[in-house]
Amino acid sequence: MLDRISASLPSLAPAEQRVGQLVLADPHSFARLPVRELAAKANVSKPTVVRFCRSMGYDGLADFKLKLAGNVAEGVPFVHRSVDVDDKTADVMVKVIDNSVAAFLQYRNDANPAAIEQAANAIVNAWQQKKRLEIYGVGNSGVVAQDAQHKFFRLGISSQATSDTHIQTMGATMLRSGDCLIVISNSGRTTDLVDAARIARENGATVIAITSSHTPLSNSSQILLSANNLEGSDLYSPMASRLLHLLIIDILATAVALKMGDGLAHNLQNLQNQLQQKRYGI
C-alpha cells in the first residue's frame, strides 16, 4: 500500500503530495489521528486530505485509515507470537494487544456479511413476532452470552442468556418455529452446546452459531458467524477469542438496531435520560 502511494505522488497535486508524504513518513500516526490534525500537519485543508484518499482509490478518509491500520497492524512485530516467560511487561503489552488486533483483522478479512445479515433478520423477525431469543455459552463464552443479552436488552429485545448446560438443554426443548438461538463457542466441540443446538434446530428454531468453521456446532446451525481464532495451548496464551466473539456480538447488535427502524433512536434517548437521572440525579 505504501509503495503504491509513493509511486503515485508525482501525478498528484502539490497539496495532495504533502498528504501522501505525511502517510509515508509516519503511517502509524496517520491511521489514528483525526482529519483536523492530519490537515494541520500537512499544511492543507481537510477536504484535501479526503481528496488524497479518494485519489488512491478509497471511499474516503475513514476507508483509507481502516485499510492503512490493517496493513500497519499486520506488519508490526510480535503478531501471532506467544508470550514468553522471560518477556518484560512492555513486551507482554505489545504481544497481547497485537494478537487481539490480528484476530480482529483476520475476522474483518474473512467475515461473511451475508451471514450477519441473515442472523440480524432472524433476530428482528423473532422480536417482531414476540418469539423467544436465547443465548448459550459455557465458560468464557458464557460471559459473551451475558454481554449479548445486555446489548439486546438495551435495544428493547428480551432474551435469556445462560451458561448452565442443564438449563440450556431444557431451554432448547422449549424452542419452536420462529424462535431464535445464539450459541457461542470457540472450539465448537462442547457436547452440551452441540446437543442444545441440534435439539433447537429439530424443533424448528433458527440456530445462529458463533464458532470456528467445520466443527460439530457449526454443522448443527443454520447460520454460521465463523470466528476462526485458534487459542494457544501454552500457559500464557492471551484469550483473544473472547474479544473476537464480543466484537461479533457488537456487529450483530448494531445490524439488528439498524433494522429496527427510526423509533429505536427515540427509545434509546429516553433510556439514556432515565439512566442519567437515576445515576446522577440530573
Describe this structure in words.
With 282 residues, this protein is of the alpha/beta class. It is built from 14 helices and five strands. The protein has helices spanning 2-8, 14-25, 27-32, 35-42, 46-55, 61-75, 89-110, 113-128, 140-154, 165-174, 191-202, 216-219, 240-259, 263-280; strands at 133-137, 160-162, 180-184, 206-211, 223-226. The protein has a five-stranded parallel sheet with strand order 2-1-3-4-5, sandwiched between helices. The model has no long low-confidence stretch (mean pLDDT 87).
Summary keywords:
single chain; 282 residues; alpha/beta; 5-stranded parallel sheet; 14 helices; 62% helix; 8% strand; globular
Category from helices, strands and their pairing: alpha/beta
Q: Give the SSE order as H and E letters.
A: HHHHHHHHEHEHEHEHEHH
Outline, from the CA principal axes? globular
Across the major sheet, the strand order is 2-1-3-4-5
Helix content: 55-70%
Number of helices: 14
Give the low-pLDDT segments: none
Write down how many β-strands occur, each being a DSSP E stretch of 2 or more residues.
Answer: 5
How far from one another are the termini? 50 Å
Q: What is the rounded Rg?
A: 23 Å
Strand percentage lies at 5-15%
Mean pLDDT: 87
Taking the sheet with the most strands, its summary is: 5 strands, parallel
